[in-house]
Every structure is written in structure tokens, then in C-alpha cells.
Write the C-alpha cells for this entry.
Amino acid sequence: MRSSNPAVVAQAAVKRLPRAALLGLCVVYVLAGFLGRDGWKNADMASMGFMLELAANRTDWWQPTLVGIASEQNALFPYWLGAWMIQIAPSPEFALWLIRLPFALLLTLAMSGTWYGTYYLAKSPEAQPVAFAFGGQAKPSDYARTVADGGLLALIACLGLAQLGHETTPALAQLGFVGMYFYGVSALPYGWRLAGPATLMGQVGLTLSGAPMLAILYGAGCLFFGGSNRDSTEGGLTVNVARRNATSTLVLGCILSALIATFSNLWQWTLVAPKALWVDWNGYFQLLVWFTWPAGPLALWAVWRWRRQIGSRHIALPLWLLAVTLLVTLFTESSDRVLLLALPAIASLAAFALPTLRRQMASLIDWFTLLFFSGCGLVVWVVWLAMQTGVPSQPAVNVARLAPGFQPQFSVITLLLALAATTCWAALVRWRTHRHRAALWKSLVLPAGGAVWCWTLLMTLWLPLLDYTQGYSLLTREVALQLDAPGCAEVQGLGVDQIAALKWAIDRQLVSAGTLARCTWLIAQGNANGDIPPTVDTTAWAAKALIRHPADASNAIWVMQRR
């Protein structure tokens, strides 16, 4: 009789991935993007503005606002973290670095939660590989560790994690707490002492980070398959005890989330109905493909290969988290930031595809990854050389057109870091192409290594260019130079991220236009044509300067002085 278990794994295939290599990969990926860069447009810069207001006690800690504008994320805890870091920072310059520290830890938490969650799911009896007639199948602990390594590599390899996973935003805080929650519910059958608090903290943290509905939906679904495994004992606990502890924990987590969201007024969530146009659905599917690549296709393959065990915890639990998150993305305008929360579940499912991959499919993944990331890395190097030397000429012309006025910077340290990363990538490619390892995680080594390599190149060689085009430092510096008389400044028509950037750059009070304050200055949103906004009373305000973003002509700011 044919077994319904698709995993046929020998002990030789669960060889341990060197811990130093895995930890080094994670450390480089976490640090690249958090260190040395400016705050970037939109959500990253806007979040830093709310943190600054809280740190200065200019707004309510339970209802943070920026010049009277409430946060669209409706979050609390991420802003508190940044505000606490600002308060202990010795200087504003140091604060810009320090506020990134807790968010780097949150990304680390998401990685750790993905590894441990996948590990405990892989230890469940239904996930174990087929037992051989004469022995030699993979041992449960070794198999679980190898699958968990694959899950972590799959998470790092996801293209959508790169930028959004390195911002100081509520979305990253939500990702960290989803990782904690994923570990908690996965490990509940093996003991409550660590898994129980992790489950509760993950659910409460997700609520305080602006996603109470997701926290409750996650908990409601996990009640059906998060309690225990199907064998008689697990980790010294009977099935009934494990199920009772798990059920109590999940119910308590849902109650706490509902109470916190109610008393903290966190239920505000604007539903956006999915559009019926094909172009919108096509864009959604394209986002789903590139954002989750390459773990997404592997996750689909895992669901198909394990379809006869679709109700088992190792498939059903991450599948529920994934299904809820995908459904929520249809009813929100920030679909990419919500989709970010699905990555731990997708990575875990992708890891369970590894024991079922055929050799031809594994080879296809390797060769496609090799060509894709090598091509991306080559582009980064060529454009950097063009910026430094003008050769080849076409990339240099493109940079000058997209970032007019940009002056390339050369740094020996940056070059050495990029060369070291490129050397490691070349060594990894040589290892993978010259040695045919039997380990399950081998198919995800190149995707994860390539993602880390390309991200490191972007955050070293291209960082000055990205700060120039995505940051606000040059724009706000010019605005500050124009404010040569004392007095507060009114802001009109500016985005939250623009106001936040001005808050960091200008040492004076900013108030919303139309308030009772009679300020000396008005800072208003301009346009590509350079026209004064019709809402500005030109009889009361005299135009002093129109300042444009160096890389975005449509992003312009009028500085006006009271007549």
C-alpha cells in the first residue's frame, strides 16, 4: 500500500548546516539596511516623526499625532520603542541610529520565530519522513533541525523582506510578533513554560502594533489545530493536558487582544473593497509572486505534495496564518505591508517542500537563482563603476537623469565590504556547483545567499544614491536655511513623512495651517509646475523660495513669510 507521506529522507540528508555560516548570514542581513542610512520616504520617515513627538511629550502616548495628524497604522508599541530610544540618546544624531536598534531586534525575532516554529512543527509525528524497512531514515531531531534551517533560509530569500524588513515601521513590529506567535503556537504541544508566554506576547504585541483583528483571527483558527499532536504523549504531557493548556492560552490571547484593542481604541481599520478590474487583480498577483519569491512557489508545492495530510499541524497551522493574511491583503490599501506578515508561514511551508523535491526541480532552482542574483549583483557593480568613472557611459547617463545633481562618493570601507560580500557569494557558488551535497537545505542556500549578497551591495555601493533619491536630508536642509527669522512655522498640504523630516531638521515649532497660532512662516506643498497652492492666502504670505526634492521635481515645498 502506497504511503500518503511524501517525505522520504535518509539520515545523510539531514547533515547539520554550520551554525557559524547560518548566524553570519543572518547578522549581515539584519545589519545591512539598519546601519548608516537616512530615513526614507513615506512610512519609514513618518514613523520616526511620531516617535520624535512622543519623545518630546508633544502628543498623547495613547493617541500619538504629528501636527494633529493621527497615524494611519493606528499602532502604539512601535512608536513607544522609538520614543524610548530617542529619550535615552545623548544627541539627535545618535538618536537616528539608536531608534533602529529595537527594530533590528524585531527582525531578528521574526527570524528566530520562523526557525523555532518550523522546528517544532517538523517534530510532530505527521511531519516525520517515511520509516525505512531496514532503518536509516532521518532521526526526528536531526530532521526537524534541517527543515528549520530550510525555513529560515527561505525567509531570508524572500524578495519582499529586504526593504520593508529594514524600516522603523509598525509593519516590521507586526512581523516580529507574528514570528513570536508562530513559534508559540507551534511549540505549545511540547510544553507551556516558554511557548505559552510567547503565544500571549506575540498576540498582544501584534495588537499593540496595529493589527488586533489579525491577532484574533490567528488565534481563532489555531484553536482547531494548535493544541496537540495526534500521538499519546509529547514532551512529558498527555494529549489532553497539552490541548487544555493550548486552548486556554489561545482563548486568553484572543480575550486580551480584544480588551486591549477596545480600551486603546485600536479597532479603527478602514476596509477597502477589492476592485473588480483585471488590472487590479493582475497587479495583486504580480505582487504576490515577486514579494514571496522564491518561497511562494515552494509553499504551493508543499501544499500539493502534503495534500493528503492537509489537516496535520505542520501544514494546517502555517496554511491558516497564510490564508488569513492573504484575505486581509484584499481589503487594505497597504497590501505589501500586510503581505509581509505572511512570510514566516510561507517560509515554513516552503521548508516542508524540501523533502519532496525531485533532483531536476532542485537543479532548476539552483540555476535560476544563480543567474538571477548574479545578474542583479553585476548590475549593481556596473552602475557603481559608471558612477565613479563614467564608464560605461549609458548607466552614468541614466543615473544623472534620474538623480540630477548627485555627486558620487567613494569610500574604501564601503568598497571592501562589497568586495568581501562578493567573494563570499563566489565561494558559495563554487561550493554549490562543485559539490553535490545531500542535505535538504542545499536548494535554499543559493537563494538566501544571493538575497543577502545583493542587499548588501545595495546598502554599501548604492547607499549614497539611495539616500539622495529616497531621503529628505537635502530638501529639509534647504528649507532650514530659508527660515532666517524666529517664529513658528505653519504646514499646509504636506505629507506626514515630509512633516516628520522637517521635525527632525528644523528646531522650531510646527503647527497645522489654520490654527490660532500666528506664525512667521508657512511651509506649503508645491507642484511640478511651481505654482503657489490656491489654498494659500497670498495677501497674508509672501513667497520666499520654492525648494524641490533633488530627485523628484514634483516633490516641492514652498517657503513663505508672513507679510
Observations:
- The beta strands are 65-66, 69-70, 233-234, 237-238, 489-492, 510-512, 521-525, 541-549, 552-562.
- Residues 359-470 form one domain.
- The longest strand covers residues 552-562.
